[in-house]
Design a protein that fits this description.
Elements: H1 6-17, H2 24-31, H3 35-50, E1 57-59, E2 63-65, H4 70-81, H5 83-86, H6 92-105, H7 112-119, H8 123-139, E3 143-147, E4 151-155, H9 158-171, H10 175-186, H11 203-218, H12 221-224, H13 229-247, H14 261-266, H15 270-282, H16 288-295, H17 307-322, H18 330-344, H19 358-364, H20 366-379, H21 390-404, E5 414-419, H22 424-437, E6 441-447, H23 452-459, E7 463-466, E8 477-479, H24 486-499, H25 521-543, H26 552-567, H27 580-585, H28 587-599, H29 606-612, H30 621-626, H31 628-642
Helix pairs in contact: 1-3, 1-4, 2-3, 6-8, 6-9, 7-8, 9-13, 10-11, 11-13, 11-15, 13-15, 13-16, 17-18, 17-20, 18-21, 19-20, 20-21, 21-22, 25-26, 25-28
Length: 643
Amino acid sequence: MMQLSKREIKILLKLLDSEKSVTTKELSDQFLVSVRTVKYDLDNIRLWLYEREIELHAQRSKGFWFELTETQRIALKNELIGEKFFDVYLDQKARIDQITLCLLFSETVTTAKRLADSMDVSKNTIMTDLEKVEEFAFKYGLVLKRQSGQGFWLEGTEEKCRFLMDYLLHHSLTEYDIYQIMHRLTDPLEPAKHPIHIGKGLPFYEVYQLVIDKTAELLAPNVMNEFNYAELLAITFRVAIATSRLLIHKSIGSFTLLQERQTLLKNQDIPMMLMELVFSHYGLPILRDEYEYICSDLTVEEEHPDTLQLSIQLIDSISKDMNVSFDENPQLLTNLFAHLSLRLGKKHLYLNEYNPFIDDIKGMHPALFSAIKKACRKVLPSAMRYLINDSFISYIALHFMVHFEKEKIEQGIVRIVYVCSTGLGVTSLIQQKIEEEISNVEIVSFASVLNAVEMIRTHKPDLVVSIFPIEGINCPLIKVNAIPSREDIEAIKEFTKKTAVNRQPAASYVRFDRTQLGTAPEEATKEVILKGFILYEGLRKLFAQRLKKEIEDAFLLHVFLMVHRIIFKQQYELEGNVDHHTLFQDRHLFKAIEQLFSENDLAVNEAELTALFNYVDKKSKEERKGNESNRRESADFSEECLS
């Protein structure tokens, strides 16, 4: 039976997910290839479908579509994302990535014949690919070495080797991989419908299966709030990479044991607990440098920057570069300030992270993407520029893209749960984009792949809209792109038309139900101001000398905005924004702050409290100074990769 290339599989999945016909031009734009190439791919797809007695319908000027039952669609998608999805013909780019990973995970030199046999291509093809591998690896500070009669290997520092491993593994992920991994983590007792294939054919593969099983054992519901799915992926990848490298005697630093091991275990530090389970299984020592590698790309707890000033400078720089009055939008400043405060204050921060928005944003708003990158390099302190990558820029871009969407509040009668990457910029953009186009919808909740099933069960929506495939829910589902395309909007619109036929329209829909406050708008405004000032004064006394003097103004604004969020039921998402370690370390202060909010009739969540602790000094200057040299080396390497 014939096999499909990875792009052909993605095109076929796109057609299966679409409720309407799709043109070759639309496919060409999405996959960044010519229309002619798409036509060749579709010819192969038709032959593959013919073997399964399935017809792909086509009509000039209309496009391509399927006429299948939902059961047939699911069965076909399951076949595509099963074993066959990963046993496909690899194009040259995919082979280069795979060869690079093979060399990095190999304990000994690797021959061209062994590589050719594993990929089912000729030795001459592999020799040509190795020239490309040499160019690719050099960009990341690694050198391809060769010895006649022996084979090939990659040479470079361990930090650079692991950075490239992490990068390649993250960039090989698809939304189907994410769903399978998160399904295993959130529901470990249910038998897996499909295997996890990341790193298949590498020593990493078996290690990662164990890492996922051990992670599932640790993730109690209350712990889940500490991470989002991108952070969970990064931590599991790093534990598996560290384990795989130590098994071939490649350590990232010294062989000094971690002295804080028992304290971290007592505090239920997830990276430490996972490292303990996996390393003990393989009989590996718990090393300090390996723990620091697994925890974060931050080698030192930086001084918290003035995020308000950073936000103002970013908006000003991007406004001038693009000649757009972003600086006249106060909501943009509020959202960007909140985003950077949380982002830069996170305990676990990774340069490589899964971000489904990157390609869409680059394609839809290349000028905005370029302007943000330029502004970040100009505005961010030199010690933090290693954070600037495509993912970091994309999340900032989401806040600016909201500016391009017109504010429009419409009646809402079809209730939707939206499953995406959660965050203020993401949800604001998606909500405005959908509600601008469709007048009879209400997004009752945003969820991530981690809590999707629970949110669907709680809200009982009319429709689930998701960037991930979700099985086993008793509710209609429309799968969409990370940023909804015109076709996605039309599919949702078509569903709402059918669903709303026999319904009475809702009286009105407002994003925040201010009537619950029991006051007129001017009274509600007064309440926010008064409570904000009371909370600010109370928090200043509780934080005492620990409040950072250089960002007191930003702290004042943060407290007022926080009170506004609480009153109008728009608190930070719990998932990924709770640092239980920090709250536990300062538990007495934490309890006192909770009491202050309670006395003022404000129900604050742990994500908001975590954000408050970003304004507090946590380490002494001596501790920060001790790790300064490590940070400089990390920043220098990241700057090299960016350039």
